[in-house]
Amino acid sequence: MIRGLVWAAAWLASGLIAAPAWSAAVLQCVPYARIVSGVDIRGDALTWWDQADRQYKRGSAPKKGAVLAFRPHGPMMLGHVAVVSRVLDDRRVLIRHANWSVPGAIEEDVLAVDVSDGGDWSQVRVWHSPTAQMGARTNPTFGFIYPAKARLHDFTPDPALGSSVRFAKLDADYWDARQPHRSPPFHGGIMVAHGRPAPAKTTRKMKPRLEADPGVMHYADASPSERTLSAIIADVKRQSALN
């Protein structure tokens, strides 16, 4: 765990993402999710759920290609959107998203787990790549937005959308329900996992037990918890221009 935190701190300080990147023009979750999912919605992530009404079907069941819309929560003031790349079982999916663990970073096929009491995906925990474990915070969501065609589209980095780096790409076969806490190895700064047996089915009523170090919370979002009002306003204006 300590090694993971030291690695994350070193990566953040390495110059790949400079200190001002918290509010600089880095790739946001919205344009990434729009391109990968094909769900043609613009504007801040917190508005996607309402905008999808009468444009797309919505629901609480995960499906490949669907957009998982997160509610604003804590430092995640503008919400978040991620794309389901694979459904493992009723409680676990793999997602592709940007600007989560590190500003501007793209994380592909990483784990998201339903930890809600009712099994309705209203509360989730998300994989945190810098520390190679599940994030410590529980994140509330609106639900899933389903595109007209369930298809994952390739994302090509575009400077016009902000600077980005592919921070993690995991082998979709890595996630084994019998070893939910085992971390994949690192290779060259990008996580790669070796194939494992297909995950065992779990029932909807089972609530996963996840372990996480509270220290993960220091790295779990793309925005720090304490920011000036001027910085927040500048970010909103910048995102509006990109969206």
Automatic annotation (TrEMBL):
Q: Where is the signal peptide?
A: 1-23
- Alphabetical UniProt keywords: Signal
- Peptidase C51 domain location is 4-125
Protein name as catalogued: Peptidase C51 domain-containing protein
